[in-house]
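Would you mind writing out the residues of a protein together with its fold in token form for me to study?
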Amino acid sequence: MCGIAGAVSNSRSPMNGEVLDAMLESMLHRGPDGRGTRELRAASGERVFLGHRRLAIIDPDGARQPWCDDEAQLALTFNGEIYNFRELRMQLVACGYRFTRDSDTEVLLRAYQQWGEKVVEKLRGMFAFAIWDGKRQKLFLARDRFGEKPLFVHEDATGFHFASEIKALLKLPQLAQREVDTRAVWDYLAYRYVPGPRTLLKGIRKLPPATCATWQDGRLTERRYWTAPDRHAPKQQPSPNGHAVPEFLERLDEAVKLQMVSDVPFGAFLSGGLDSSTIVALMTRHNSKVKTFSVGFTEGAYSELEYAGVVARHFGTDHHELVVDSKDLIEHLPRLVAFRDAPVTEPSDIPIYMLSKEASKSVKMILTGEGSDEVLGGYPKHVFERFAQPYQLMPGFIRHGLIQPLTQSLPYGFRRAKIAITNLNIEDWRERYARWFGALSNAERDELARFRLQPSPGAPEEAEILPPFDSDPDNSTLRRILYCDQTSWLPDNLLERGDRMTMAASIESRVPFLDHVFAEHVSRLPDSYRVNGMKTKWILRQAGKSLIPQKILERPKVGFRVPVNKWFQGPMKGYLKDHLQGQSSKTRHYFDTQVLDRIVDDHVEGRQNHEKLLWALLNLEIWHRQYA
């Protein structure tokens, strides 16, 4: 894993070697093991800049980038890992290519030389890369299927620019004057993250996952080369069979084994839940000396260290534990907003960063259980969503006038029931999908926000032909919401979080559940193999019976919860109120202050729990103090 940056600049551009150096220096954490740059000249006179910061995982003594072949007129800068590079190398050797290193970087360059833009369809891995093709006078870029590796772009009259992180693009002189994108702020208030391709800064956007792009003759064209398989309704519903569970486990084991390819020490994050425990169990099949890392909290009710310890002892791992408290959040939060270049959308980002720092003392790469819920149907909403249509057949006065108020009066221990009823009352499925994990419904956002946006021309129609809302209308309820998760919540929040928090500690994270071959196999299974009655991730639980302790299989889903609701009422109360209600607040003007103050006061005084919303607003404020 690394950091990349570059540009194709015309004669009016202020881009030069010093600017490229500054872009790379801003991403030192992504690649402390080395750096490289290359400047080339296009036939048109445009200058081509490629830069790279390296975290050496495979072939640590070689494979330095940008990797160039002057005879072939190719130059590559690449972030990520190609897990099937040895298989591809065998194919390329049969085509007559010769290799100097045991490196996925050299294989990627030769694979492009052989197959051109179709190379992306052959890659099994996580990646973001740019290749200057001098013979065709074009810059070719691509991002992996689920969006594990980031790639941000900026276009203007002086040319095209790209980087692994926004902070690198902000080193461009033309972006010295930053402007907040209020449409992105508007989306953030609903989602708690900024859905792609937007970012909070005008002029900077994300290249979408599963997309390749070409800059040629001063114009950028994009192509979506892969679609998350749950987008489409199966042509015929597959029948259950007795081989499904063993075959599922075989596919997952293959993904884990592939992603353990490394020339440096590695380990795994272990929460003690079903997902990470399964990954650790499979890792121990292929390596008897697995290191595991777990984080807990001083509040015992929120800590999963006990369960992580059960798994670690069961598999005999070299286990490491870390405990955090509210002081750690206050201390690290502003720094992590800077690492993320965006609001820290989940309180769990901070313990993940701290655990990454702990892990970096002994490993340079870790495997995680991320992505399982989005591929296998692991959230309560995946159960509740199928009740939306029949629930809404009830008369409105019963749903809104009786059930909703009664549910909201329940204590915090009924949190999931309160969330379910609130969301099942939302009739627009697009709004409901955002609200399941989001902060505000459209009506709540209208009440809180002072500013309004004019609808974009044709916006409703456009929204229905782009991810995450372009699912096949004949799809099942489960497949439709999973597709939304796979194309929005996952790349724009969870994977972005995972990349930034681990890279901030200069270690690489890998996610076997998002191996696209595995995900395509899961998508071909009947829905009941994922959500069966009220059971989520049914097939993983069945497979887990032969792998992990029964105590882990039987425990309810907890999620990586941080006790921020209690901290906002205690040790973080002053910090919260200062940022949202203090005179130095930079975001207070966005809101109706009476509504905002009521929300803050209701939470800190224990009348309502608004932890999700308040965390989102607090981080939006911290981001504005650093970037706006």
Summary: The longest strand covers residues 74-82.
